[in-house]
Amino acid sequence: MASRFSSDVALTQGAENARLAAEGSDDDPVLLRVEDLRKEYRSGSQPLVLFDGLNLTVRQGEMIAIVGESGAGKSTLLHLLAALDRPSAGDVYCASTWLGKLTAGQAATFRNREIGYVWQLHYLLPEFTALENVAMPLLAREEPKPSAFAKAKELLCEVGLEARVDHLAGELSGGEQQRVSLARALVTQPRLLLADEPTGNLDNRTAEAVFGLLERLHATHRLTSILVTHNMEIAKRCGRTLRLHEGRLHEVWLRASGSEEGSPEASTASSETPGHPIVRTAIPGADRTGTA
Ligand SMILES: Nc1ncnc2c1ncn2[C@@H]1O[C@H](COP(=O)(O)OP(=O)(O)O)[C@@H](O)[C@H]1O
Ligand SMILES: [Mg+2]
After folding, report:
1. 114: which of 29, 61, 223, 270 lies 20 to 30 Å off by Cα?
2. Looking at the DSSP assignment, which residues form a beta bridge with residue 58?
């Protein structure tokens, strides 16, 4: 399959489609619902309560950024959404799946079918090729090798790495490794993409390129995406930005429909579900750029 990034026209069109796709719509069905989530850790003398009464509703097609101080619980939240961890109380529903009722085996199947996960550290297997790394989730679900490798190759072409298919993952640059992990996350055709500081280890220029790719993939793969980032320029290109602070999500930025510019006080209709208020607040350093 040819690269999707062959001309400036295609890029401009892709960026516009990505912008429109990131907004979602009030009419779109809810894909993810988090209800009264509580998470506490009991490893020290005092229990550490990370969330208490955290609520979130995400509509299909939305692209959401989550920002917050280090230690606020952003990674823990993504783990709970992916059924990688269990809440102390409360519920997470993804489409028709109630995560609380899944056994460990069912949770693994749920992740393999529904979730694409991108980590700050790519966690590629360095001694395997890019192709083998991307095919891995399909081989794990016992898809025959020829079809798994064909799909993996198609995804690697989509992320612009057709010339690196047979390179060992350990020999690729940081930006290329993150492209491979995006391809690996999407090869199973998930509905929900969870990305935990996917550009956090990259220089500004590479981070911009990887995020641009993520935006385009969000649109072309009709994803619902939740992205943890410290980069406010990147966050502002998402449809909504939520700040995780003191165990709750506070809406700090919502792009008005059809507009490039968002507002901290833009329309509330798409962000609130009755009984699930999201507190609005200004974010300190919101005009700061960079990857912190
Ligand atoms: N398994 C664990 N046991 C105890 N404390 C943990 C565990 N995992 C994370 N924490 C603590 O929870 C807090 C939030 O962690 P994390 O979700 O990684 O934050 P963030 O991603 O926002 O930086 C941190 O203070 C961390 O030390
Ligand atoms: Mg984290």
Report:
1. 270
2. 32
pTM score, two decimals?
0.83
In a domain, 247, yes or no: yes
72 vs 49: CA distance, rounded Å: 10
Domain count across the chain: 1
CATH code of the domain covering residue 84:
3.40.50.300
Centroid of ligand 2 to alpha carbon of 31 (angstroms) = 23
Structure token digits, residue 1: 């399959």
- CB of residue 46 inside a 6 A radius of ligand 1: no
For the chain, the average pLDDT equals 84
Sort strands 89-94 and 30-41 into parallel, antiparallel or unpaired.
antiparallel
The parent domain of residue 52 ranges over 9-124+190-280
What would the mean pLDDT of 191-195 be, rounded to a whole number? Answer: 97
Produce one character per residue of 73-106: b if its CB has 16 or more CB atoms within 10 Å, e if not.
bbbbbbbbbbbbeebeebebbbeebebeebeeee
Q: Is residue 274 part of a domain?
A: yes
Q: How confident is the model at residue 288 (pLDDT cuts 50, 70, 90)?
A: very low
Query: Quick one: how far is CA 137 from the chain centroid?
Result: 17
Surrounding ion ligand 2 within 5 Å at CB are 75
Beta carbon of 67 within 6 Å of any ligand 1 atom: no
Residue 206 C-alpha to ligand 2 middle, in angstroms? 20
